[in-house]
Amino acid sequence: MSSRNDEPQNQHQGSSDETDELQAGAPEANSFPSAEEPRASLCSSLQTLLRDELPPSPPRASSSATYGARSSTSRRALERRVEALKAERDREVREKRAILDENRKLKAANASLVSEAQRSRAEKAQMKQEIQNLKSETRVMQTEKELQKAEVRYRDDVIERLKGVLRRHHLL
Question: Does the model's pTM come out above 0.70?
Answer without folding.
Answer: no
